[in-house]
Design brief:
4-stranded antiparallel β-sheet, mainly beta, about 10% helix
Length: about 180
């Protein structure tokens, strides 16, 4: 009786570990040493692209570029507040294609006149820079009746309607 045997060629598993290159280790080490020595003390630079000096209605488009320089910790976040620099900050989203932080603020409940937009950039070392931008909000025309209109009564801002008498006597009876 003949026997056949199969010869299988099984390769032994080769276990390798990932080891970063010496260049990566040097860069990471340099940043760790710089952070421990307190060399990352400068706050990020902030350049406001929008808003710019116009009067705004409806929505305020916000566009900001922030950089921390080649030897700093790097920008962690950029946020804004409208008319206040204390309290909760709203984060702007980073568009990586343009490295621009963007957001939109609803102005529908904001009264017309001068206001301030505060922008804050923070880096990974905890350094902060806050800048303020003046913003002028135009009142929305035709926004509906105001409280003053309500106090004057119905149709106070419209004048007499067609077909309505425009004069009344002292007793309130139409002529």
């Amino acid at each position: 009786m003949a026997t056949t045997s199969k010869h299988s060629h099984v390769r032994p598993a080769v276990w390798t570990t990932w080891a970063p290159s010496m260049g990566v280790l040097c860069v990471v080490g340099a940043h760790l040493v710089a952070a421990m020595l307190g060399l990352y003390t400068s706050a990020p630079n902030v350049t406001v692209l929008q808003p710019t000096g116009d009067a705004f209605q409806g929505h305020l488009e916000i566009s900001v570029q922030a950089s921390d320089g080649p030897t700093s910790a790097g920008v962690r976040r950029v946020e804004y507040q409208f008319d206040s620099s204390s309290g909760a900050w709203t984060p702007l989203r980073l568009e990586k294609e343009t490295m621009t932080y963007k957001g939109r603020y609803d102005l529908s409940a904001v009264k017309g006149g001068g206001h301030s937009l505060y922008l804050r950039a923070a880096d990974f070392a905890g350094n902060l820079r806050v800048v303020s931008v003046p913003v002028t909000v135009s009142p929305v025309e035709g926004a509906g009746p105001t409280m003053a209109d309500a106090k004057r009564g119905p149709r106070a801002d419209k004048g007499p309607a067609q077909g309505w008498p425009s004069e009344t006597t002292a007793s309130g009876v139409s002529r």
